[in-house]
Specification:
By secondary structure, this protein is an all-alpha fold. Helix content is about 65%, strand content about 0%.
Length: about 140
C-alpha cells in the first residue's frame, strides 16, 4: 500500500511538471525530481532516484547531489545506498564523485566499496580523461 502511494505521488509530480506552461517539460520534471529526492518520504526518494537514472540524459538534477550523498551515507539498507550511488554517477557531478572517492577510507561494505571504485574509475575515464593513470582509483590500494 505504501508503494502505491509513492507511485501516485510521483505521477502527481510528473503530471504537475508537464502541465506547467512556459517551461521546458524536462526542466519542470527535473525540478520535481529534485523536490522528490529532498522529501522525507523514502518511497518517493527511491522512485525519484530510479527516474533520474532512467532519464539522466535529459535531466538537470545536480541540485539533488547533496541529498543523494546524504541518502548514500546514512541509509541502513545497502540496496538503497547502492541506488543512491548509481544515481550520483548518472548526474555527473564532480563534487559527488569526489565524495565517493574520499568515502573509500570509511566504507565497511565490500560490495559497495568495489562498486564505488568502478563507478569513480568509469567517471574519471569518461569525463576527466588524463594521459596517465594517476587518477584511477583502485581497490588494490591500501585504505
Amino acid at each position: 500500500m505504501k508503494s502505491l502511494w509513492c507511485v501516485v505521488l510521483v505521477c502527481l509530480f510528473v503530471c504537475n511538471g508537464f502541465a506547467q506552461a512556459g517551461e521546458n517539460k524536462w526542466d519542470a520534471f527535473s525540478k520535481n525530481l529534485v523536490r522528490a529526492v529532498q522529501s522525507s518520504n523514502e518511497g518517493l526518494q527511491i522512485s525519484a532516484m530510479r527516474m533520474i537514472i532512467r532519464y539522466s540524459n535529459n535531466l538537470d538534477v545536480k541540485d539533488a547531489a547533496f541529498d543523494l550523498v546524504r541518502i548514500f551515507r546514512n541509509h541502513s539498507d545497502q540496496r538503497v545506498r547502492r541506488l543512491a550511488m548509481v544515481t550520483l554517477y548518472q548526474i555527473q557531478d564532480d563534487w559527488a564523485m569526489y565524495f565517493l572517492r574520499r568515502n573509500r577510507q570509511f566504507e565497511k561494505d565490500e560490495s559497495i566499496l568495489r562498486q564505488s571504485c568502478c563507478i569513480v574509475n568509469a567517471y574519471y575515464r569518461k569525463y576527466k580523461p588524463t594521459s596517465d593513470d594517476e587518477q584511477l582509483y583502485l581497490i588494490s590500494e591500501k585504505r
